[in-house]
Amino acid sequence: MKRHIFPDMEGAVVDSAITHFLLMLGYRLFSVYFSLFLIDRGLALAKVGYTYFLIYLSIVICAPIVGMLLYRLNPIILSSVGILGYGAYSLGMIYSQGALFDVLQILLGASASLFFVASRSLFIRLKLKNYNSAFGIFHSAPTYANFFAPVMGGLLIWRFGFNGVLVASFIIHLINVFFNIHTLSESGQHEKREINLRKIGRNYWTIFSSFNRLKLTPYIMLSFCVLVVAGLYNAYFLLFLRNIGLSQNDVITYISLFSFVFIFISINRIKILGRIKSSDGFARGGFLYGLASILLGLLGSKIGVVGIFAVDILKTSSAFIVGAMRSGLIAMDFTDYSEEAGVIDTIFAPLGTAIGAFIGGILVDSIGYGSTFKIAGLFIITITIIYLFLKKYMAAGNPDTTLAQPPLH
Predict the structure, then answer these.
(1) Which chain regions cross the lipid bilayer (predicted)?
(2) Which of 46, 199, 305, 373 is the most exposed place for a label (fewest CB within 10 A)?
(3) Are the C-beta atoms of residues 26 and 176 closer than 8 Å to each other?
């Protein structure tokens, strides 16, 4: 079945996407209601952003540590420990009170770091034919999970309460650990190496100092800014839907239908990723993402749920293209530094999301949803214009594309 849908993809790529799907299925059984849950617990809007900030900041801090562990440990072991961490988080949330709640968010961030750094590092090592399409498949897995998770989670909450859905989440994560170890053990064969901090530091220096020489700076800048705005929507879009009058059941229906439609759109986008030039994809994705955000801010509830749905599809598909291409570019150019490249690519998403959630909480609380969305859209369009100028400037300068070497002193 998986070969029929993605005939040109290596088996390890599709298996990784399935593992990612199961991880997100277990997590999003309850997390899809997370922002609503936090508000129901009495948290202020800014505190919602802080909670997301804590999770994603933990990912950023833990990612370099996981990168070092990859020198000694099989990535399958690390990703499996990460999945178990998700399971422990699910059980822990049953008893989350006071300081334990914050500790569990840090555990979730550390677990995500283990899974995503190890998975991305494994991808980069595989020397794939088309990194854009491969990462497109990987990035699309949460969309498929979103189709099933809200309905399953809603039924479980209705029948067994919130504790029931958390136990179900734990069971899915446990099953996923066995699937991960069984299907990816071959591609995860790992040769142990010494952890040489000086060498690791030089590898990071090589990657970062190569951004300009390889003309990657404009791409990295634009994709990071899209992630910042995506962090805002990640924390507050469901609250926006509630704010315009949708009930919790309406929100569940919206998410399920959106994810079902986006399954087909993402498959189409994956095919496009194999053909489109990165420069065109980034520019188009940036402009469309900014436009969608401005439309949401200007029109809001005036266009109705159907209109919001259409704009949301435009916004999400644009971010999907930009995100997959960013991962593909980093993977293509730094295959010799798989651990460090995996860390850097993993850090981008949570760091951007953390900043967006934190700033978004302040803005939404101060000026409301509409003005916040308009500012976010104008910001992305401005950054996209800067991206085009930077790309043109760097192309005119024709810099050397050789990897930069760190200073030896």
Answers:
(1) 12-30, 50-71, 76-97, 103-123, 135-158, 164-184, 219-239, 251-267, 287-311, 347-367, 373-390
(2) 199
(3) yes
